[in-house]
Each structure stands twice: as structure tokens, then as C-alpha cells.
Amino acid sequence: MDCSSKKKQYYTEDEAAEALIRSHIRFARPALSYYLCAECAQFHLTSRGPQHPLLDQPEVVERIHNEQQSQDWSHRLGRK
Ligand SMILES: [Zn+2]
Predict the structure, then answer these.
(1) In the prediction, which pLDDT does 1 show?
(2) How far is the CA of 45 from the centre of ligand 1 (A)?
């Protein structure tokens, strides 16, 4: 199903949540949340706030932190 938003579609909320967390691990300006699209009835990430409460959960914060560190280990390119 196509969507005029042209955003990547996630079939389930779990997939969208995982993608949101991964964007925080990988990108300096990550997505802030995900939403259920009224047009295509699937989930998209968005960089508009408010930040999803998932990102405040201690285990999620810790996972992002840990995975960022292991990424820095494999490509040390002056990233903080
Ligand atoms: Zn959509």
C-alpha cells in the first residue's frame, strides 16, 4: 500500500518502536516518535515532537547508550 507521506512504513507498533530506537543509536538527529498514519494505516517515524515516552524508559536509554558505544568502537570518526 502506498502512502503520500513517502515515509517508510512499519506494519506493527513493535517494528516502529524498534526503528525509533535504532534511529537514536545511529543518527545525530533521530526521529522523536512514531505515529499511526490515517492514510495508510501503518506506522511512520516522525522528527516532530513530543518525544515518545518509550525513549525515557531506563532500559531503552541504556540500550541506546550501549549500542552507541559499540558503534563508536567500530567506526571512530571523531563522533562524540
Ligand atoms: Zn502513511
Answers:
(1) 63
(2) 10
Q: State the distance from the centre of ligand 1 to the C-alpha of 79, rounded, in angstroms.
A: 33
Residue 73 alpha carbon to ligand 1 centre in Å: 36
Distance 34 CA to ligand 1 centre (A): 11
Asked if residue 38 is part of any domain, the answer here is yes
Domain that holds residue 66: 13-72
The structural domain count of the chain equals 1
Position 7 in a domain? no
- In angstroms, rounded to a whole number, what is the distance separating the alpha carbons of residues 17 and 19? 5
The arithmetic mean of pLDDT across residues 22-42, rounded, is: 95
Question: For residue 44, which phi and psi values (nearest 5 degrees)?
Answer: -130, 155
pTM of the model: 0.85
Q: Please report, as a single letter, which amino acid is at residue 57.
A: Q
